[in-house]
Amino acid sequence: MATILKGKDILDVKDLKLEHLSLIMETATRFENVMASGGRLNNMDGRVLATLFFEPSTQTRLTFETAMLKLGGHVVSVTDASSSAIKGETLFDTGKMIDGYADLAVIRHMRIGSSRELADGAAVPVINGGDGSGQHPTQALMDLITIQKEKGRLNNLTVTIAGDLKNSRTAHSLAWLLGKYGPRFYFVSTAELRMPEEITRALRMDLIEVFETTNLNEAALKSDVLYMTRIQKERFSDEAEYKRLKGTYIVNKELVEQSKPGITIMHPLPRVDEITREVDDYEGAAYFRQAANGVPIRMAIIALITGRE
């Protein structure tokens, strides 16, 4: 069972089965327990992770690098400014090249399909750290384990995903993965920023209840989890359109008080203005715990795909 992910790329959440999800979360929990008890892990001793970040990142990059270091491994990094991509090198060729340097790689890029192009060239496992407005599978995995920790289960939940559902790769990936557990979804957005039809149609074909609405208050009143996303400024070609939509949905203390009692508030970060700081004191505000969960989840993924769990 522990070898079912060995040698595999983590590029698309649709490739992950329930057995994969269970294994990753169980491994993450085991690693977290070792660290909490003061233990050390050396699963990746002598191994190297290459991080290729062609798009800005704080949380994803730091958690991947921290995860590798906590497993006893090493990290080499490339950013957009330091990459040979500015000379015209293709991601396929970059993948071929990193085989000589690293044991696995994680890439973040502004273009959908970029991680697959890198993986096509690389013999080592590749992880999609976010590709444009496409997917972000490891974020969805840390979201799953956060929901599991906060609510004690992944099934029989009502979950609202709100904000920029058109462009949010985290929202796309979470909808695909959480859909495997049979939730009820409320997708809250303006008409311009609706969840892609490919996702809503596939969920409904799997008999998942999906309600699309513009009313955040009504959805939050019925939900166990509220997953907020920011309006993705970098995905807009028209700044005026971004400014018009920015601030459409804001979670403040008043909204939380009017929501379902015990609702869990999540956010993939960074937040802009969609959750006010006064909400941070709410017991169910889980977004910084969610961010911390990225380390053990990514430790588990690194160890499992390299066969060093």
In short:
This protein has helices at 18-36, 59-70, 91-98, 114-121, 137-151, 169-178, 197-205, 216-221, 239-245, 253-258, 287-292, 294-305, and strands at 48-53, 74-79, 104-109, 126-131, 158-162, 184-188, 209-213, 225-228, 264-266. The chain is α/β, with parallel strands linked by helices.
**Count of individual domains:** 2
The number of helical runs is 12
Proportion of residues in helical segments: 25-40%
Question: Rough shape?
Answer: globular
- The low-confidence runs, each spanning 5 or more residues with pLDDT under 50, are none
The ordered string of helix (H) and strand (E) elements is HEHEHEHEHEHEHEHEHHEHH
Distance between the termini: 11 Å
The CATH C-level name of the largest domain is Alpha Beta
- Rg over CA atoms: 19 Å
Give me the CATH fold name of the largest domain.
Rossmann fold
Strand order of the largest sheet: 7-6-5-8-9
What does this structure look like?
- It is built from twelve helices and nine strands.
- With about 300 residues, it is of the alpha/beta class.
- The chain folds into two domains: about 140 residues, 3-Layer(aba) Sandwich (Rossmann fold); about 160 residues, Rossmann fold.
- The radius of gyration is 19 Å and the shape is globular.
Label this structure with key terms.
single chain; alpha/beta; Rossmann fold; 2 domains; four-stranded parallel sheet
Task: Set out the fold topology.
Layout: H1 18-36, E1 48-53, H2 59-70, E2 74-79, H3 91-98, E3 104-109, H4 114-121, E4 126-131, H5 137-151, E5 158-162, H6 169-178, E6 184-188, H7 197-205, E7 209-213, H8 216-221, E8 225-228, H9 239-245, H10 253-258, E9 264-266, H11 287-292, H12 294-305
Parallel strand pairs: 1-2, 1-3, 3-4, 5-6, 5-8, 6-7, 8-9
Helix pairs in contact: 1-12, 2-12, 3-4, 5-6, 5-12
